Every structure is written in C-alpha cells, then in structure tokens.
Amino acid sequence: MSETARKAAGLAAPSGDANRWKALVFIALAQLMVVLDATIVNIALPAAQEDLGISDGNKQWVITAYALAFGGLLLFGGRVADLWGRKRTFVLGLAGFAAASALGGAATTGPLMFGARALQGVFGALLAPAALSLLAVMFTDARERAKAFGIYGAIAGGGGAVGLILGGFLTEYLNWRWTFFVNIPFAVVAAAGAYFVIREPEGSRNRNPLDIPGVLLSTLGLVALVYGFTRAESDGWSDTVTVAMFVASVVLLLAFVLVEGKVKAPLLPLRVVTDRNRGGIYLSLGLAIIGMFGLFLFLTYYLQIVKGYSPVKTGFAFLPMVVGMITGSTQIGARLMNRLPARLLMGPGFLVAGIGMLLLTQMEIDSSYPALLLPAMLLLGLGMGTAFMPAMSLATMGVQPRDAGVASAMVNTSQQVGGAIGTALLNTIASSATTSYVKDHIGAAAGKPQQQLVGLQGMVHGYTAAIWVAVGILALASLIAFTFVNAGRPDPTTVMTGEGVEDEVPVPVVAH
C-alpha cells in the first residue's frame, strides 16, 4: 500500500514513532541485562555454592527460584503492562531488578540468595513482557518488524556471550558477587534511556479491571507444577507431596481456564492462545526450552568439574553456541522471515538443534572439545536462533494492541516455565542415572582414585541419559511447529495502528 493510500485510509505510516529505533537500543539493553544475568549465574554457581554452603540437592534453587517467580507471575506482569502502561512497567521492572541484584550480590546465606533470585524473577516478570510488547506495538511494518526482532535477538545472543565471558572474569579475578552487582549499571542506563525516549502509541492500553481470581489461579498452578518437578528429584516421583503438587497444578490450571472463559475481563483472553499459530508457537517454544535449559547447567558442571576448566575458559567454551544463535537469528531467521512460512524456519531449526543435542549423547570423560562439543554447540545455537526469531515475532503478530502485553507474556511464560521444568526434570533424570551407575560400579573400584573416577563417569552417564530425553523433546517441538504453525510469510504492506482496535492488522498469509 502506498503512502498516499495509507493517508487516505487513515492508517499509520510504517515509520511510526520517530524514536522507535532509539527505543530499541534501550529495550535491547534491558534484554541484554536479563540474558547476561542468566548466563553469569550459571558460570558463577559453583563458586557461589561453595562460598554460601549450598548443598548439591539445593543448588538448582539458584536457577529454579528465579524461574518459578518469573514464570508464575509473567501473565500478571503482561496484564499490568497492558493496564498500567508498558513504559512505566518497563522502568519499574528495571529498577526492581537492579535492587534484587544488589541483594543477591550481598547474600550471606543460601536462603537469602534464593530469595534475591526469586525477587529478580518478580521484577523480571514485569520487565520482559513490557519490553517485548513495546516492540510489538512500536514496530508494525513487517519489514521493519523483522529487522527489529532480528536485532533484538542478536543482542540477546550477544548478551549471552558477554555474560559467559564477563561471568568467568568476574568469578575468577574478583568475586562471584560482582556477577550480580554488574546488573545495576545496565538497569540504570536502560531505565534512564527508556524514560526519555520511549513513547507508547496512544489508545493501546487495556483499562479493564484486573482479574484477581485469574492471577491467583495461574500463579499458584504454575508454581505447583514446577515445584512438583523439583520435589521429584529429592524425594522421588511417588512421594506424597510430589504427587499432591502435580494434582494441585492440574486442578488449579483447569480452574484458571474455566474462569478465563467466563469473566468479563480475563487475565488471559482465550482468543490469544486458541489461535492455531500462537498456540503452536507457545507449545513448541516451551518444549524446546525444556530440552535446552537443563543442558546449560550440565555443560557448566561438565566443563568445570569433569574437564577442569576455569570459569573464564568455561565462558569462552560456550561462545560457539552464542555465535550460532546470533547467526541463526540475524542471518537466517531475520532474512527469511518475510520470504518463507514460519514453520519452514521453526521446524528445521528445532531439528538442527536436536542433531547438536544428539552429538552430546556421545559425551565421555575424555571427550574432545574441538571434535565433539564445538560442533554440537554450533548446531544447537544455529538451530535455536533460526527457530526462535520468527517464533517470537509471529507470537505477537495480529493481536490487538490491548492484548500485546499478555501475548508477549505468554511467549515468556512458555520459555520460563519450560526452563524451570527442564532444569528440574532433566536434573532428576541425570541424578537418578548417576546414582544407579555409581551403585553398580563402585564395588569394583579399588582405592580412592578409582572411586573418584567412577564418580565422574557416573556424573557424565547421568548427563547423557538426560540429554537423550532432551533430544526426544526437541524432535517433538519440531513436529508441533510443522503441524500447528500454518501461517505463511506476512504481508509486508500491512500495519497495526496502535489504536484500541485493529484497523488493519498484519495477519499472516496462510500457506496452503
């Protein structure tokens, strides 16, 4: 559609807000901080665990406490962004995240660390959907949208690289506490820039009253689900509390769906998730993250404990995965998103990542980094970057502006809950396999050195057992992407006006 035709029709020009590209810088900086924090904590975890006296059974709570709070409150955070204003919610999320990071850096006990991580998750649940929904409502032209999401994804991947390397340097040469304190300057700069640069489109808020029953049911249901998986590791799958958590989560989430279908102003309008493409994206992304998330923890411990890498060397060892993610996002996903149906990027992307994961099932104590880990990480990163970029864009495309926050929250919810489940589930499988291996082989080990060797072999055996499960999960994610996601390439001439209703929404062209 020409500019003249747009004006005649009363539609917004694709140029939109003149500051949108400047705003992207600060939105991406906030995303960089969140990704930086996640990767830094993975690198710093062994040192923090030793310093604070956190047991092996509880170490995953440094990761899971964050994911529980983040995943459980994301829908609430997305709705708050739609109601209160995305810019205001974004700035509040940054300020709270910085304060929680300061608390984590000053932690003196394990429980205080877990509490700080949970608090980071609370404010992250405000920050993440606000950031993604700001992109969704500010970049409405399909070509600009592809470029913006490509840059956003690349900076997020770059944040992973910065986090891995910076985390290694800070842990090795200063102290693990600085891996938390480093978030503060990022948050200050992003919040100041956002305050002065970001301008939300008028009329895009959802001013309906907050759905309190929906908030309570969704939060309690998601927390019960993840805690059930976490409890299964330490107490077994048949433990009374474990079973009770799973039953409670099913009951609560079913009640949530029923409530959302009846209330006048639902927390999660069912139209957001019942759309075939968005539903397929949420499900496939969640499964892919389940497969990926536990792997980061395994590889960190494998490289540092089994291979004896320093924190800095471990950070550099992850770089091929990050390079692959950036390449897949900017050079494949962003370039082809407007030329190919999303399923032809997502399905193959998850398969390529699955092949990389399959290589890691061959991991042993003396595995070669260049021969095995390097190609596996490249394939994992390349596949995930290619799949995630169109998925994140399509998941918020075509929604009414008043639903942009909650649609963005569903993207993050599928990832964060998937991450929490992935960490708990795969850690449970790995621990069980390790215990069985050591029990079967320790009797034949003569002397302490031989027993230590059996212990390391058992650890690697547990990792590979869990990775096999992850391979199957990625294959299922690929199948769902091929099956459910039937949108073709978007029409590059359509825009979303930013009003409370859709005047001309960029609905993807259906590929038959």
Account of the 3D structure:
This protein is mostly helical and 512 residues long. 76% of the residues lie in helices and 0% in strands. It contains 18 helices and no strands. α2 (20-52) packs antiparallel against α5 (110-138), α5 (110-138) runs antiparallel to α17 (404-441) and α9 runs parallel beside α17. The relative contact order is 0.15.
Gist?
The protein is mainly alpha-helical. It has helices spanning 3-9, 20-52, 61-84, 86-105, 110-138, 142-174, 178-181, 183-197, 212-235, 240-260, 270-274, 276-306, 311-317, 319-336, 343-360, 369-395, 404-441, 448-484.
Name the helicity range. over 70%
Total of helices: 18
Count of individual beta strands: 0
Listing every helix as H and every strand as E from the N terminus to the C terminus, the arrangement reads HHHHHHHHHHHHHHHHHH
- Report Rg: 22 Å
How would the global form be characterised? globular
Through-space gap between termini: 24 Å
Low-confidence stretches: 1-15, 491-512
In round numbers, the mean pLDDT is 79
Q: How much beta, percentage-wise?
A: under 5%
Mind summarizing the main beta sheet? none
Oligomeric composition of the shown chains: single chain
Query: Helix- and strand-based class?
Result: mainly alpha
